[in-house]
C-alpha cells in the first residue's frame, strides 16, 4: 500500500503479518508507524505497557496512522516466555487496570465470552480442519466443557500474547500489536501463555505468581483456554499457508490434550 505523509518523511514497509506496519524516518526522528490500529494505544502507552505514543495523523483517504517511539530491542524467545516474571507482571497490570477498562468501555470494546470465542473459531473454518478427526475431537471437548464467565468479571485482554508480540528494550518488557484487544476472561491470555510456553507441571506455580489460587476449576479453565488458543493458531496458520507452523501447533496441542 502507498502510504503518504508530508515530503520530509521517508516511509518504509516492515515485514509482518498484517502489512500495516512501517518505519518512519524524518531528520533524526525514527518512529514505528501502524495503520488503523486501536485507539487504545495512548492509554496503553501512558501505563507503560506498550512503547510511547508519539503522534497520530489522519491521511487524506481516512486512514489513521499511529507513531510510536522506535526502540532497539529484541523479541522474547519461547523459553523466556515461560521463565520471565515480568511476563506475569505485564499481564497482571493489563488485566487489573481500571483506566484501561474504562477506556475500552468508552471505545465500545466488544466482550468475548467462551461461547463467542468458539463461534469466531467456527467461522470460515477450513473444510480440512472440520474433517480432521483429532481436531474435531478437541473441538467437541471444548463444546462440552465451556467454562463459566460472568460479564461483570470481564477484563481487558490482549488476545494474541505469543512471543512475537513481546519486546525487550534495555531490560524493560513491552507488549505490542494490540489489534486483537477486547474484553474477556483474563484466562484468554493466561491460557495462551501457559499452553504454549509452560510445562503443565509448572502451571500451578505460575498461577500463584500471577495471584490466582490454582483450584481444580482454575486449572480446568486454564486448560480450556490453552486448547482453544491452539485451535485458533492452527486455523490462522492454515489460512496463511504456513503448514510447517500449523503442524508444529498440532503437535503441541497433542502434547497438552493427552495430559
SSE layout and pairings?
Blueprint: E1 10-13, E2 21-26, E3 29-35, H1 41-46, E4 53-58, E5 64-69, E6 74-75, H2 78-83, H3 85-95, H4 98-106, H5 114-122, H6 127-130, H7 133-144, E7 155-157, E8 166-169, E9 172-175, E10 182-184, H8 187-197, H9 203-210, H10 216-240, H11 243-257
Antiparallel strand pairs: 1-2, 2-3, 3-5, 4-5, 6-8, 7-10, 8-9
CATH superfamily of the largest domain: Aminoglycoside phosphotransferase (APH), C-terminal lobe
Quaternary organisation of the protein chains? single chain
- What proportion of the residues is helical, as a percent range? 40-55%
Largest sheet data: 5 strands, antiparallel
Which term fits the overall shape? Answer: globular
Radius of gyration: 19 Å
Class computed from helices, strands and strand pairing: alpha+beta
- Poorly predicted sequence stretches spanning 5 or more consecutive residues: none
Q: Walk across the major sheet and give the strand order.
A: 1-2-3-5-4
CATH classification class of the largest domain? Alpha Beta
Which H/E pattern describes the elements?
EEEHEEEHHHHHHEEEEHHHH
Amino acid at each position: 500500500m502507498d502510504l503518504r505523509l508530508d515530503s520530509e518523511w521517508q516511509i518504509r514497509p516492515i515485514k509482518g503479518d498484517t502489512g500495516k506496519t512501517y518505519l518512519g524516518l524524518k531528520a533524526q526522528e525514527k518512529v514505528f508507524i501502524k495503520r488503523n490500529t486501536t485507539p487504545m494505544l495512548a492509554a496503553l502507552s501512558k501505563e507503560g505497557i506498550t512503547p510511547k505514543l508519539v503522534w497520530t495523523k489522519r491521511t487524506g483517504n481516512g486512514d489513521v496512522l499511529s507513531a510510536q517511539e522506535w526502540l532497539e530491542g529484541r523479541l522474547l524467545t519461547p523459553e523466556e516466555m515461560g521463565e520471565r516474571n515480568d511476563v506475569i507482571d505485564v499481564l497482571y497490570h493489563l488485566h487489573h487496570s481500571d483506566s484501561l477498562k474504562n477506556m475500552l468501555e468508552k471505545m465500545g470494546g466488544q466482550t468475548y465470552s467462551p461461547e463467542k470465542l468458539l463461534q469466531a473459531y467456527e467461522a470460515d473454518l477450513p473444510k480440512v480442519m472440520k474433517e480432521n478427526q483429532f481436531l474435531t475431537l478437541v473441538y467437541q471437548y471444548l463444546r462440552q466443557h465451556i467454562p463459566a464467565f460472568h460479564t461483570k468479571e470481564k477484563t481487558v485482554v490482549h488476545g494474541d500474547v505469543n512471543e512475537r508480540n513481546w519486546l525487550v528494550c534495555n531490560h524493560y518488557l513491552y507488549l505490542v500489536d494490540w489489534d486483537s484487544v477486547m474484553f474477556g476472561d483474563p484466562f484468554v491470555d493466561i491460557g495462551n501463555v501457559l499452553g504454549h510456553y509452560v510445562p503443565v507441571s509448572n502451571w500451578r506455580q505460575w498461577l500463584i505468581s500471577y495471584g490466582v489460587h490454582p483450584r481444580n476449576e482454575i486449572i480446568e479453565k486454564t486448560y480450556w483456554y490453552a486448547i482453544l488458543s491452539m485451535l485458533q493458531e492452527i486455523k490462522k496458520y492454515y489460512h496463511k499457508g504456513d503448514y510447517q507452523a500449523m503442524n508444529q501447533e498440532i503437535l503441541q496441542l497433542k502434547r497438552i490434550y493427552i495430559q
